[in-house]
Fold each of these.
Amino acid sequence: MKPARVIKSIGNQCTLETSEGRILPGILKGKLRLKESESTNPIAVGDYVHIEWDATAQVALITEVLPRHNYIIRKSNKLSKQTQILASNIDNAVLIVTPLFPKTSTGFVDRYIATAEAYHIKTILVFNKSDVFDGESAALIDDYVAIYEPLGYTCLRTSAKNITGIEELKLLLKDKTSLVAGHSGVGKTSLINLLAPGVNLRTGKISKQHGKGMHTTTFAEMLHLPFGGYIIDTPGIRELGTVDFEKAEISHYFVEMQAMMHQCKFHNCLHLNEAQCAVKQAVEVGTIHPMRYYNYLSILNNEDNFN
């Protein structure tokens, strides 16, 4: 039997899609539940699994989780030393960005990008609500694009309200499995409703007190795209996959640093105060953007500037 795929997962229970397109309820077989895991969830959205049908219970028993091509994790909310796998087997990591109401900081963008780089996932930055930003806020988007586009990251301006940029986004997502993330309030749900009509996800309101959105997504879910492919809608995210990074490897996930790290005098250079550091020299002359370097240091020092 061909593997089925997990399209929704809550604890040990999930919803599965077979290779024939059948939707089945699923549950982990007992022996799999007993296995120790560094993550709090032994199965995740996007997993391919082998199943056997339990006719008595009318449920598919997951007998094996196949090796993951990649995945993205976050810190567990309950157990800080454990992690939760947000999704697996992903082609694109899409981050919805807004400069204000709510603000997506470059620190958050760089943590997201570093996570995607670590797991060999292509990053797409979508600057949403372009219809309401002008003047200073529009210039801020231009600044973001000027930082990330030269590094090879796709940057797209969209408006769910004016239906702009949607066709371009569809082309990027067609026939791919794309994880879509962003702070609550950036318009993620409205964009998903445009991409997958009929899903009708509930949109949230912006908190007047904090200018941030209120969570409407409570668990990751994989949704069919009518033009081909899947999107994985994720809860509001904060602690991303940098939780398991070794300090020496963090600069590997900043592509401009990775390209010149072999020019440093020391092979284990952390690009702090070491002599003849090519990365530090590049920052000084402007080849590496100072904000990117600042965000690198923040991840290195495990500082929280990622709101």
Note: Residues 106-118 form the longest helix (13 residues).
Amino acid sequence: MNRSIILIGIGGLLGSIARYLLASFFTKLFPSAFPYGTFIVNIVGCLLIGIFYGLSERYNWFTPDLRLFLATGFCGGFTTFSSLTFENLVLLQSSEYLTFALYSIGSFAVGLLAAFGGLSLTKI
């Protein structure tokens, strides 16, 4: 149990740092009411978790510890559902209803497609 917690914690630390750097980069690259940084991070996180899941199902070298580190730890720290929720609240309070709808639906739909795509990539 302690080993699992350490693996998840280190993965989460690295994922959180990666999220901050990537989200900041895209927010500066695409300044807009639409939160591109969080959106892109969430989609990339969905793609990665699909890839990690697929690799863990396909290859013996992808150990349960590696899956904990990458899927639970890194992706858990990397994806930003709480940020997505907060940004949607701000969009609603700002009466940005179209942006709210596009961001909410896009995050779910494109995220699901990205996770499926990541899983599919491991079956090639």
Note: The CA atoms of residues 84 and 110 lie 14 Å apart.
Amino acid sequence: MSDIPPTVPPPPSPPSTGGAAPGSDRTLMVVLSYLWILFLVPLLTKKDDADVMWHAKNGMGITIGEVIAWVVYWVITYFAPSVVACAASVLSCVIGLGFFVLRIICIVKGINRQRFSVPVLTDMGQKINI
């Protein structure tokens, strides 16, 4: 006979702990919650999932806050003298990058089943009943 031992199949992988159930779209819905107007998708389709609804309303609050910030910026640059308007262009970068970083933080926290609360904006979003 040969000296080759019989092959033994590898042990089965342990069951996964945590995370969403297979086929769940929770992660997608959390990401959509923070992508500007796309917060409407989870807000209108996942009314039975309290966690996704919280993130959708938080995303709505952040979007409303960003729109308000841009309107204020446009008013300042439209009515201000050219020197102030030129200096306000720096403010444009701060607004854009600030909200971009805020959205990335919220997405990462949401995917990890955590919540990132923005003081005024989260409260504004959570108070709106849909």
Note: The chain has five helices and no strands.
